[in-house]
Amino acid sequence: MQTTNIESLEELLNGQPGVAEMRTLLVSLLGPRDAAQCVAHAQKLESHHCRVYRLNLIIGGHSTRSLIIKRLDPCIGRRNELVAQRWLPAVGLGESAPELLGVAAEQNGRCVWHVYEDVGDTPLNAEELDLVRVGIAVELIAQIHTRFANHPLLPECRLYGGDLGMNFFTSNMRDAIRCLESLRPDAVELSSADIAMRDRLLGRLQTLLDEQPRRAEIFAEFGAPETLLHGDLWTTNMFVTPTSTGLRARLIDWDHAAVGPISYDLSTFLLRFAAEHRLQILQIYREEMAQAGWRMPQEDVLNVLFETAEFARFANRIIWPAIALVKDHVNWAFAELAEVEQWFQQWQPVLAVKEHALTEIA
To answer: Which of 86, 182, 250, 272 has its C-alpha lying 20 to 30 A from 98's C-alpha?
Structure first.
């Protein structure tokens, strides 16, 4: 862990854009007097797409508070801001995400810095099943899904977050096929093994695209109303922590929040747990949804909905290395494509129940 004062954050954060603006924000949050005496113990946290740090602020020799600072793309920053300050409060769930204390935009518009309250460093543990904590987490997920179903704010959520419904499946299949077809010998250096892998992926994606009409019918019949989705519902983004009134669940990192069917979030969440626990967790969710008057489909139908969401994500992960190959001729892209092919090959249904063919579900 590194130690600095507020005035030297630029050096601590290695010249990242917007640090001066973020420092000014911290001074305004603390007050000039406390900021002048403040020492910050900073710890870099794991993050895939942004820079995230925990600041333990010490004023006058006494630890006072812990903050999380995040550097975000402006579009993603705006989405997170709307989630915390507009969307969740609109349905009475404002406390289900960390409080956003302030936003500082880099003067050239390259990024924004967010400052959040710290919810701790012990997210929900998927490996050691704690049904009490999992139940509280599932209750929050169900509340978000039911309260936002057909909510008038959904058009705004779609505008700033996107759409993870059936169109997400269709567009990603088409885009992935288009990008793979661009991997031609006149554009990219290809080995015979590369060509064979490209063709296998193309064949798989084309089959899935051919299935789109039937999958769309199943979505229309069983997919439930559109709602707000977290979009990245890993257990690492769910915290269930003690408060003065008992355990409370909160979700962090709403970078992928969007509109779509509950199956998109539910698939991500269930896949974090061992297969033998998923039906038990699903039953908790079913009971929460039943209290809101929702009737969910049977497990074989859910498996089709979950598979559709996961295969759309797989296809999306093909697009970017393919573009990088054509545009930048990078040497890592084929390894990523091979990894996606392995995901397809190793795919197993989310729920261990008797399977029906896609054409048999009615």
So the answer is: 272
Q: 2-117 in CATH: which number?
A: 3.30.200.20
Q: What is the pLDDT of residues 86-135, one digit of tens each?
A: 999 999 999 999 999 999 999 999 999 999 999 998 999 999 999 999 99
Tokens 């925990």 appear where? 54
CA distance 255 to 252: 9
Instruction: Considering the chain, tell me which residue range(s) the CATH 3.90.1200.10 domain(s) occupy.
Output: 131-360
- Helical spans, DSSP H, in the chain: 9-12, 19-30, 32-37, 74-82, 88-90, 131-147, 154-161, 166-181, 192-210, 212-222, 262-271, 275-291, 299-328, 333-346
| CA-closest candidate to residue 222, choices 274, 322, 299 | 299
pTM of the model: 0.92
Encoding tokens for residue 206? 């084309």
**Angle, alpha carbons 202-205-206 (nearest 5°):** 80
Q: Specify the residue for token string 């929702």.
A: 294
Q: Which fold has domain 131-360?
A: Aminoglycoside 3'-phosphotransferase; Chain: A, domain 2 (3.90.1200)
Which of 59, 52, 120 shows the shortest CA–CA distance to 80? 52
Q: What is the pLDDT of residues 299-337, one digit of tens each?
A: 999 999 999 999 999 999 999 999 999 999 998 999 999
Give the Cα separation of 222 and 328 in Å (integer): 42
Is residue 231 a contact partner of residue 264, using CB atoms and an 8 Å limit? yes
Distance CA 79, CA 90 (A): 15
Cβ-in-10-Å burial (0-12, 13-18, 19+) of 78 comes to middle
